[in-house]
Each structure stands twice: as C-alpha cells, then as structure tokens.
Amino acid sequence: MFSPVIQSLIAEKAGSFIIPASRIAFVEDENPLYHAFLVLTKMKYSKIPVLDKEQKVVGLISLSMITDTMLTPDNIVIEPLSDLKVKDVMQTKFETINFARTNLETQLHLLVDNPFIPVVNDNNIFQGLLTRREWIKAFNYVTHSIEEKYNITKKTLQKENPIT
Amino acid sequence: MFSPVIQSLIAEKAGSFIIPASRIAFVEDENPLYHAFLVLTKMKYSKIPVLDKEQKVVGLISLSMITDTMLTPDNIVIEPLSDLKVKDVMQTKFETINFARTNLETQLHLLVDNPFIPVVNDNNIFQGLLTRREWIKAFNYVTHSIEEKYNITKKTLQKENPIT
C-alpha cells in the first residue's frame, strides 16, 4: 500500500509536479530528421516528445534513434537526416499519464523504467511531462518534512508463532 | 533534517543502490570521437563516464556534445568524428560521490540536477554510478513499507503565541 501520509505530503506539492507543455521542446512527426537532430543537439535533452498537427503525442525521439540511422557497415553518413522523417524513426510504444486517472503509485512505478512520461488529457492532447527529477524533488521534500509534521514510532513486532 | 526513519529504511536497501563499474559502458579520454559516437548510439545511454588509462573519472560525454561538433553554419559534417578525441569535447566539470564521505542527504540533493553521479574511491578510481532510477526504486520501497513498520500520527499544532 502506498503510504497515505507520504501521499498527503506529496499532495501539498502537487501542481509544481508537472512540467507544462509550454516549457517543453518537441518536434512534429512530419519534420525531417535533421530538424530533430538540431533540436536535440541544441536543447541537450536526451529524448523529447513527438506531436502531430493536433498536438497529440504520437511518439518519442532521442539522438541515438537518429544517429543509429547514420551508421552503415563501414562508415557514418548524413543522408538519412534529409531522406527520413521523424515518424520513420521515433519510438511509438510508450506510456502516457492522464492526471485524472493515474494515481501516484502508478506514476512512481512508471518512472522506474522511464526518465519521463508524457502527460495527456482525455483527447490525448499533450499537457506536459512528469519527470524523475520532479519526483526526486518531492522525495527530498518528504524526507525533510515528515518528522516535523508527524510522530513516527516503530511498531512492536508481532509474534509469528503464537503459543499453542 | 533528513528523516532518520526514512534513512533507516533506505539503509536496508543499500548495496543494491549503486550500479557497479563492471556493468557501466564508458569510453576513454584518448578515444577518437567516432568511438564514443558508436558506443552512445548502440548502448542508448544519454551520457556516459569518460575514464583515463588508470580508471580515474576525468569527464562525462553525451551524444549532443558530439553532434554539436558536427554542425556548421549551413551543413552537418562527419569529419570532426575522426579529427577530434573524446577529451576535446567531454564535460570536465561534474560532481562525484565518495560513498565513504557523501551522506544520503547530499546524494539526493545532487540527483535533483544530475540524472546520475559517478561514484569514486579515495584515489578517484571509478566505482560505479548512483542514478535517479535507483533512488526512485528506493522511494518506491519507502512509500510501501513505512506504514507497515511504523505508527505515524500527526503532531498536534503548537500554539505560536502562548497566553501571557
């Protein structure tokens, strides 16, 4: 069970928890690959969301997905950057979070294997990102505030084999 | 203050906490840049440590540091990959952790702004990585075990202005 006490401490911080879409770099699925190459090189993010024209999240793209197309058996070539589009190389299998439906426990579980998770609304429109960094900050807050606000005492051990 | 209760819960998990050097991809400072380009493309890590011949951590390198050298005002070129070495583009300013000296509170603070931190011994020899992912797993453990093992009750509010 997810600790109700920690849940209530984290709830105090909610709102500061998601990075809003307006602050996130993204590319569009129809962009040529060199555009994503430039954005990822200059923004220094390791992976960013891919949106379609309606602002729906349709994929994720990283520099390594792009540079992988540049490898030939005996050389590194730049032609794929203009020959291919973002949609040709992006990752299309990924998790999303809908804040109205995804509880904290599930969010934390998803972040074990994903550095960030796109947040969408009921129409799959991009709302922002949930990131490990924001959860590390939340954990930081919990570790510093829990014993200010709560008394915590160790439970006495239950006997495993009661006398018969 | 870092909660002693959470500290003791995390201490139960210590050991599983650092990813050992033997499991980490790295490059050497004298490697040509195309070697790091290949390693980062194929391993799909966003950033990896750079070691010298004595296994000391001397830098960090990401794909975007490499692809940035490939940008000219009007083109993308591959020559820098063979003309430059890892040490020419790596990041040389970075934090390290020495487990004998760095407490949990400091580790958690460092992870707010760094997805991972190299762990070194007293001779600066690479020991492994501390990652946000491992801390997310630790937080997961804390949220699920704290109320099994401890009784937690809200502190009563102290009156700020005692009756005079």
TrEMBL record, chains A, B:
Coiled-coil zones: none
Keyword Cytoplasm tagged: no
Species source reads: Lactobacillus johnsonii N6.2
The CBS domain, residue ranges: 18-76
What lineage, starting at the top, does this entry show? Answer: Bacteria, Bacillati, Bacillota, Bacilli, Lactobacillales
Database matches in CDD domains? CBS_pair_bac
- Supply the name of the protein: CBS domain-containing protein
Transferase in keyword set = no
Q: Which keywords has UniProt assigned to this entry?
A: CBS domain
SUPFAM superfamilies referenced in this protein's UniProt entry, alphabetically: CBS-domain pair
Which PROSITE patterns does its entry note? CBS (PS51371)
Question: Which Pfam families does its entry note?
Answer: CBS
Q: What InterPro entries would the database entry show?
A: CBS_CbpB, CBS_dom, CBS_dom_sf, Diverse_CBS-Domain
